[in-house]
Amino acid sequence: QVQLVESGGGFVQPGGSLRLSCTASGFTGSGYGMSWYRQAPGKERELVASISSTGTGARIYYADSVKGRFAISRDNAKNTMYLQMNSLKPEDTAVYYCNAAVRYWGQGTQVTVSS
């Protein structure tokens, strides 16, 4: 049974940093893409960043709104994906969700950026 568990959310002031983690279980191997999505109150869920399955080189995508501030990575030995979030802004406030292999979702972790 596939399971994704996120952690690392919290409350931070503007300009601060947080690192989210998503640990996967139930997969065989690491040949699947992983992504971070977020959903703010009253808004649709949006793709924040994604990283392909590693092999000759992982392909990475960032939404324009987070380019230069967020960094996605994965450690296949630990079955874990990360999202390093720097220079956080109030508009980054949302529930952040981990996605793997398109069809699997974590439960979400709240990120609140406020002074």
What's a concise summary of this model?
0% of the residues lie in helices and 50% in strands. With 115 residues, it is mainly β.
Primary descriptors:
115 residues, mainly beta, 7-stranded mixed beta sheet, 4-stranded antiparallel beta sheet, 50% strand
Share of residues in helices:
under 10%
Which residues sit in consecutive blocks of at least 5 with pLDDT less than 50? none
- Share of residues in strands: over 45%
User: Helix/strand/pairing class, anyone?
Assistant: mainly beta
Helix and strand run: EEEEEEEEEEE
The number of helices is 0
Average pLDDT reading: 93
Number of strands: 11
Distance between the termini: 41 Å
How many strands, which pairing sense, and closed or not: the largest β-sheet?
7 strands, mixed
What features would you describe in this structure?
This protein has 115 residues and is mainly beta. The chain has strands at residues 3-7, 10-12, 18-25, 34-39, 46-51, 60-62, 70-75, 80-85, 94-100, 104-105, 109-113. Strand 5 (46-51) and strand 6 form a beta hairpin. It is globular, with a radius of gyration of 14 Å. The relative contact order is 0.33.
List the helices and strands and how they pair.
Blueprint (H helix, E strand, L loop, with lengths): L2 E5 L2 E3 L5 E8 L8 E6 L6 E6 L8 E3 L7 E6 L4 E6 L8 E7 L3 E2 L3 E5 L2
Parallel strand pairs: 2-11
Antiparallel strand pairs: 1-3, 3-8, 4-5, 4-9, 5-6, 7-8, 9-10, 9-11
